[in-house]
């Protein structure tokens, strides 16, 4: 008898340079982490210390393009001349096993995932511009108006980007960002709709 | 210049006997807790060790009934011959200060709070009947059918009660229940709508 609940798909994304990779690595270096990291496929060359099947699945352009044609990728993008993508079979299989899957991908990729898995959790990793902005406004007079204007512009752009996300985690400190992501996953497992579904499944058994 | 965000109102409730008081005490014994506990008013006599203004505000029936007439209570109920209630002024003032307020109240009280603060977070503390039920079903054959039937009935009743709540926290272990409640509060502060509102407030400043 299977009463296994489908896992959650968690998508961490955000503007490039915000520190998505750093946060993901810090998250997965924690001993108690329950998430399954979905390893990306790429055509870029391995960097020093990177291991095939651990950091990435390294493929040739031909192999990658075949994966695209055969619909084996949940999302993919070309970035600085290289392909990056997420193999769909691992994600689907792991979710079916009841495990939570974690993707760390670019913003365009996140939008592709949303089309296939609208029920996924989309977390926007934001630079600490909001708290910086707050500080700068509070210290107004001692700061240049140009700097404040730049921060305001950055905040406006972030505000627009985050619209398609469920949660926003500010990356002011990597440790704190990890705590927030873990809290979001834990809280989502406690959402009444999800728990009620578990109850209903159990009661249907009768 | 004030860009202070209103605090969250967190309501912990659930069937009587589930251990709401125990979880609340464990939660507030933690050194890093950021929640403000809203002390209830009651007409029952202080028990050994209970301190006025710490555990409860102890009042006479006359005083309590005057509070009801003057609309000073956010919610109240009579329970085994005594009144219990939540003073509204403390809740409102603390939320305005940008602090999160925590209420631990009976199910009927939670429904009254929902009318005044529909935006509050309602957390249903559930007995560990679901995981017990699962275990019992898995061990079927070695367990009496009566016991399973009782558990199923209990699960059905819980399922109905939790309908009006946002989250369900199973009280299988007090420590774990506390972790889940803290995660829910942290996650809710990261919800995009809330963060976007903060951004918008900052941008309006200009």
TrEMBL record, chains A, B:
EC number annotated for this UniProt entry: 2.7.4.8
Superkingdom assignment: Bacteria
InterPro entries associated with the record: GK/Ca_channel_bsu, Guanylate_kin-like_dom, Guanylate_kinase, Guanylate_kinase_CS, P-loop_NTPase
SUPFAM superfamilies: P-loop containing nucleoside triphosphate hydrolases (SSF52540)
Listed Gene3D superfamilies: Guanylate Kinase phosphate binding domain, P-loop containing nucleotide triphosphate hydrolases
Main location: cytoplasm
Top EC class for this record: transferase
Subcellular location field: Cytoplasm
Catalytic activity: GMP + ATP = GDP + ADP
Transmembrane segments: none
Cellular compartments per GO CC: cytosol
Alphabetized UniProt keyword annotations: ATP-binding, Cytoplasm, Kinase, Nucleotide-binding, Transferase
Molecular function per GO: ATP binding; GMP kinase activity
Positions annotated to bind ATP: 14-21
Residue stretches making up the Guanylate kinase-like domain: 7-186
Pfam family, one: Guanylate_kin
SMART domains according to UniProt: GuKc
Family: Belongs to the guanylate kinase family.
Function: Essential for recycling GMP and indirectly, cGMP.
Protein name according to UniProt: Guanylate kinase
């Amino acid at each position: 008898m299977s009463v296994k609940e489908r896992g959650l798909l968690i998508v961490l994304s955000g503007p490039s340079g915000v520190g998505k990779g750093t946060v993901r690595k810090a998250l997965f270096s924690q001993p108690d982490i329950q998430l399954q990291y979905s390893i990306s496929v790429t055509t870029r060359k391995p960097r020093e210390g990177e291991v095939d099947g651990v950091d990435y699945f390294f493929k040739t352009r031909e192999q990658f393009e075949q994966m695209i044609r055969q619909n084996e990728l949940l999302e993919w993008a070309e970035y600085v001349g290289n392909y990056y993508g997420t193999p769909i079979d691992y994600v689907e299989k792991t979710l079916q096993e009841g495990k939570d899957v974690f993707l760390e991908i670019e913003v365009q990729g996140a939008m592709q995932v949303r089309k296939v898995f609208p029920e996924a959790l989309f977390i926007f990793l934001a630079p600490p511009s909001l708290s910086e902005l707050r500080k700068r406004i509070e210290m107004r007079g001692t700061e240049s108006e140009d700097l404040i204007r730049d921060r305001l512009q950055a905040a406006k752009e972030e505000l627009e980007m985050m619209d398609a996300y469920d949660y926003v985690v500010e990356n002011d400190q990597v440790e704190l960002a990890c705590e927030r992501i873990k809290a979001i996953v834990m809280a989502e497992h406690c959402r009444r709709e999800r728990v009620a579904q578990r109850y209903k499944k159990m009661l249907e058994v009768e």
